[in-house]
């Protein structure tokens, strides 16, 4: 029996850190396989999935490693880091028999297609996972903003922001055991309470495009599927 899903087309934002597992940097193969298996669960249910992957596990334009470098140059390095993660994700999907394509916002035709909206939509309709690499293709932005942009362009039903915490809390749950998770929040409430859901540019774009956001924990087994089924998982930020 096929289960009814709350969302048909989703944009999943995976930070680079989500791929590190317990390693200090880089890509942890077991972690990436755990994440990709969770995504397979929802593609098997007929959900169309676009993924925007970050690069913070390898390089961040504003990091200490970037030091006194020219910011734009450092940001291009950060974008290239996201391409490495995208290739690792594609490889992991294929190892599980899930068809996946990488589309990069920066042209590097030997290793990835260049981003093209109609082609990306076609892939989603064909049930292929589309991994959007190289962020927005512009320095001074983040992959959160790239996720909001691609989510809006792909007419996704929801932006799913995967984090290390299983939702948005009224205090840091790692420091305060009495911290409470919000089940839902409006965009206005998140702003008034100064809750960090996504960076400000991404948040504003999602709000303007009426693209609701779910913040949830990707390391929690089955969490992605639970969000897709509309169960009480993570925090839904809505208009
Ligand atoms: N980046 C950029 N433009 C974009 C997206 C990313 O310049 O549109 C660069 C920026 O240097 C950023 C790095 O790529 O620090 C990695 O992206 P991000 O920090 O968003 O990754 P995450 O925190 O999700 O791992």
From TrEMBL:
EC number: 2.7.4.22
Gene3D superfamilies in the record: Acetylglutamate kinase-like (3.40.1160.10)
SUPFAM superfamilies documented for this protein: Carbamate kinase-like
Single GO MF descriptor: UMP kinase activity
A single cellular component GO annotation: cytosol
Protein keywords: ATP-binding, Cytoplasm, Kinase, Nucleotide-binding, Pyrimidine biosynthesis, Transferase
Domain Aspartate/glutamate/uridylate kinase: 8-216
Predominant localisation class: cytoplasm
Biological function: Catalyzes the reversible phosphorylation of UMP to UDP.
Subunit structure: Homohexamer.
Name of the protein: Uridylate kinase
Gene name of the record: pyrH
